[in-house]
Amino acid sequence: MANKKNKQAVPATGKTPKSGPVNAAEPVRQLPATMKLALLLAVVSILVYANTLRNGFVMDDQVMITHNTYVTKGLSAIPKIFATPHQRGFWELPNDEYRPLPLALFALEYSAFGPEPMPFHLMNIILFAACVVLLFSFLDKLFEERRTGVAFAASLLFALHPIHAEVVANIKSSDELLSFLFGFLSLNIFMKYSTSGKAGQLAAGFACMFLAYISKETVVTFLAVIPLVFFFYVKAVKERAMRICGAAVAATALFLLIRFGVLNYYHANNLTKINVIENALVKNGLAFESRIATAILMLGHYIRLLVVPYPLISEYSFKSIPFVHFSNPLVWLTLVFYVGAGVYALVRFVKNRKDAVAFGIFFFLVTIALFSNTFLLVKATMAERFLFFPSVGFCLVVALLLVHLLAKGTEGSMGALKKPVLTGVLAVIGLLYSVAVVARNTDWVDNYTIYKTDLKKVPDNAHLNYLLGYELFSMAKQETNGQAQQVMMHESLATMRKATELLPEYYFAKADLGAAYFWVGMMDSAIYFDKEALKLMPDASITRNNLAGVYMKMKNFQEAIAVCRESMRLSPANVYAYADMGFCYQNINQFDSAIYYLHKGICVDTNFYGNYDVLSYVYKAMGRYDSMEKYQTISKRLLNAVK
Description:
The protein is an all-alpha fold. It has 28 helices and no strands. α13 packs across α14 (329-351). The protein is elongated, with a radius of gyration of 31 Å.
């Protein structure tokens, strides 16, 4: 019995355990390989766009941030942002959108940091890194974690592709980033629901889908992607797949309902109100056959940019892409490519319902269709940001091709990444892409640089000519060196004139050219371009105010009165017209008429200081100094309130 008690228990393996310290330290847990790859993708994404942190606000950033009356109010304006059209804080459009989430983010950032661009750029970089990680997670799950190497390669190509420089470097494109972020987050959550069946995950997926919609409508293409994923590519119970599709449709319906209500309330839902600067395909006189042929050719340009991302241009408006007909062989080559790609993907899909190449092609075709301008005209002729979603399909197909050619037959989900040839090729492509991205980021440093750089690539782009000319005009007004100011103004006038020559129906170019000529004292040219602008937009109150100002500067008060009277007829709420009318009557000593119109202006807007200011001068001219002081005091108070 004693011997039995002293015997040491032997494990079932039959091996005697090794002796060691009783409190031996537990082995350090290492991060899973997929987590390491995700972190690597995040770091790469951040590093390649780090030099955007020194950039300023560029292009539409003033519409969305610096000059947006809602955003600059900060957190207090967020309820208003969710209840109004997208650009209402800057101007009123007849064909606006409903994208409140990016503006709410801008308002939050502005409240915290004010008009400092660096934090806004940092947020874009973080959002982009998150997009890349979510894409990697989605692709890894799509392949049931059996082809992690492919998922990583595709995500790396996506992270470094130069075509995305616009989306990350231009703060305004947070809408694209947020839509992608929440769109792919919803896909990842829906995938979890497909295996767990937890109702909370279905609800979370629905919520993320809705957040993607109120960021930008691009995610509507997921109505085709989601059934493809959950009925064919992911192992999901049929009932769960149907619920996922139902949740996506419900999120779409809720968004459309809210969007319709908000835009209709503000009369901003006129889809036909697209001008030629937004989309060159609406140009007067352009034949339907040419419109379709040109739209197809643009689809070919998208493929070219994905394969060879050069040159990159911030504006593809009139006349960056020439109008063509079906007699152009490139149109047919593009058509054959797209149809051929669709047929090829369909054949592969029929043979294997989980074919990865087929999925990549389908994803590209579905997401690019929204911006094809063939089924429905969108508010832009062409844009590199439109490739943000479709490039996922392109990068996936390229990654699959590289793995097939350079790492075929490798075992395990990570096997492909252990092939030096594949990793070497990815490193070379990544290095070339990175150099191109970093270089392109420097073009986005400010308005002058991006306009000047891109105009060299497309010298006949009417919109870029106008934008550069207007930027030079703004710079010249701030320039203190007389000689430098003259040079800037000369270039400004020449560039804006070219815009009007390229596109005679360009209202803004003619209106601002009139303002520029007024500023340099060339009154005859100012009158000419103001009148030309008014032919294009007769109810443009700002241009009528400018024209009246020209006549007043020339002391031609009768002509100025006629312009102001027409302005009041077309725009009764134009308070500047009443102030100008009062000023004119004061200068021809018709004080009663001056007082009459100035008081009418005060009735229109009691908070506009201008009418009170002119009234003070009228009463001074009449020798009524008590009234002069009264209105002078009111004017100063209101002016200080504005400042």
